[in-house]
Request: fold
Amino acid sequence: MILSVPCLASGVIKKEVNKNWTFKQVRGNNWYPATVPGVVHTDLIHNKIIEDPFFRLNERGVQWVDKEDWIYKTILEIPADLSGKENIQLHFKGLDTYADVYLNDSLILKANNMFREWTVNIKPFLKKDGNELRIYFHSPLKIDIPKWDALPYQNEAGNDQSENGGVFNKKVSVFARKAGYHYGWDWGPRLVTSGIWRPVYLEGWNDARITNVFYRQDNVNKKKAELKAQVEVLADKEGEATLTIHTPDVKKAWTEVTTLHKGINTIETNMVITNPELWWTNGLGKQYLYPFTAELAINGKLADSELTQIGIRSLKVINKPDEAGHTFYLELNGVPVFMKGANYIPSDNFLPRVTKEKYERTILDAVNVNMNMLRIWGGGIYENDEFYNLCDKYGILIWQDFMFACSTFPAKGELLDNIRQEAIENVQRLRNHPCIAIWCGNNECHTAWFNWGWDRQYKKLGFADEIRSMQKNLFHDVLAQVVTENDPTAFYWPSSPYGGNPDAKCESGTANWNPNGDGHYWGVWHAKDSIANYNVIRARFFSEYGFQAFPEYQSVLKYAPEERDHNIYSDVMMAHQRGGSHANSLIEWYLLNEYRKPKDFPNFLYMGLLLQGDAIKTAIEAHRRDMPYCMGTLFWQHNDCWPVASWSSRDYYGRWKAQHYFSKKAFNDILVSPITQEDKLNVYVVSDRLKATKGKLEVRLIDLTGNILFEYTKSITVPANTSKIQYSTPLANVLKGKKANEVVVNARFTPSKEQEISNNYFLTRFKDIDFPKATISTDIVAAKDGFNITLSSDVFARGVFMSINGIDNFFSDNYFDLLPGESRTIHVTSSLDQEAFAKQLKVQSICDAY
Reply:
């Protein structure tokens, strides 16, 4: 029998302050309605004062907004059940960024960190009614430019688009504890926001309340889970209290009786659960969550309670010496798990626009392509609770950067104290989530110091020791200490990429990230390495690599609808390409190096998407073949914050690029991957499954009209959680005199009683292959929420792409190869009737794009 606790109403009352807000420009006269949570830019859009900055060139016309100060105000309504409480406070979940808060003309708070929460006791300032809450937001540019002017050197912040913002070279983003990407990045606009970006709550309580609960998982296996609950309680007087922790999944409750002292108290209790239901990542098992409730009673009356969903799991990062250097892999519930995923940036420049529905779609788009990890990059934000809740629910582990990226930071004095508190608050907020796997100090600050020339630059100026000392103290001491003290079973990594030595370079192939740590490989793309180089470059864990593409044509029409825009070097397309003409020239260079010249703008987009997909498919397969030496592959990047040409696999509107479709197959729990190595055709079969899998392996060589020139079939057993060559033969034995550009290798593995897993491999570049003109037939049948399309082709059709007008539709697969004699059925969600759908449907393959 489950021990029951009397159902008493909690003594804490909480009310969101989200009604009747207005705002104005400080030096203006007019007040306008405001939405809270929100930011100045979205309120200006809603009041038709500015146009959508994401459309065409409108971003340029709103750069005045961040130079102004803004005021928000409302009248606080204090309900009767709250007004009688002994303690009444305002809880600001997020103020962006420099904000003075007034209640009835009394200054009650000066906020200076977007990433922190702020709680203020307001009872002494309240009137009976008509309480005016007013928040003055200072321009972050006006606050921080004097700090820039005062330094004898410039901090590195290469992605800060200060020139676009009209402040010349004054890259001030490093002075504000604010999302770095707001100041621009090489995939994002410069839109420096201010506002009440997370909710505000009015809270009332008597005697005591729970301020934090931590369920520390000290020892977990399938037989027993040993946990320690640490409950932080704020009391306004001394008194006896009873803490009870219970969950419907366990028959007993845990109870502690203690004496509270005025101020902060910590109550601890040890908890043991036998035969726990363990939490697993996507693809390996259930994402079981225990609902634990902590209840605080004072004199037998419930004062406060807190419900926390806990995934019980053992999670370790194994970074220890081996014969090749140091391992770097995650061990979940005693099992080494290969990490498959992407890097995540904020989903919008205007953060309050990211709804719960958009969060869920974003996470499901990771789940549905077989990912098990996302890396939250350090130039954005510590995400909303909803994001992590969804990752817990669906089994997506999180590599969590602290919010530092690609810059040097003046981390001393008051700013360092501010950062320390920011880190404490966010570690404490997130540490109960089973999805949290790694805490990482920063993105690329270490490699930038040694590899981008920063050390030499500052040595010449005479400030290298001072700046390097600040960075090492922040990333190797302060943040490490915060994690140790607040999430002691977690793994902390000072930077990404990093290889264990704070004073060593981390160039590709040197000792610092290979063979010891995580690697960012940008030889393909930035250095013009051949895409085939993905097959030879090695790392223990690839935490970044990527390849750019524009969104597909129907997405481009949303932000660049005019025909004069439809050139990648037009003003509009260049405004939505933050890598500049250099990035466009790289897309062109790679496209002409790997493919042929496209015939027009829509086909340039189509072929660029195929190119991106092929590049990342090549990388993922190479990394997975290299397990267990390599145990992770996270491409850059999962999403966009606005419509743009970027490395994303999903565009701003959520449309899947070819890369995302290709990733689904490359991340499958079983991958069949042919590759030529040393004049041999090797067929690897990679499995993430925890049990061996029996099935049939087929390897075929096919010409482009569908003739089978070579065939091999064998029943095999694929070992659990490993990569193994299952077939190898000299390439000449397979070709039998045929030229490499005349054929394609098709390899398939069909597990017993499961669908086949198929992959095509080309022996040369696509530009050298004369793909025949494909006649593709379609059969359209109405189905739930859309249509099923069955496609077939008379010859090998490379990169079959389907589209209809607009973006309010979704294809279950796209950009796929179609073999002659074999049909494919694709489901399409669409609200069109069948006649309109059939009329709009366009189908093409690569031979139609030249």
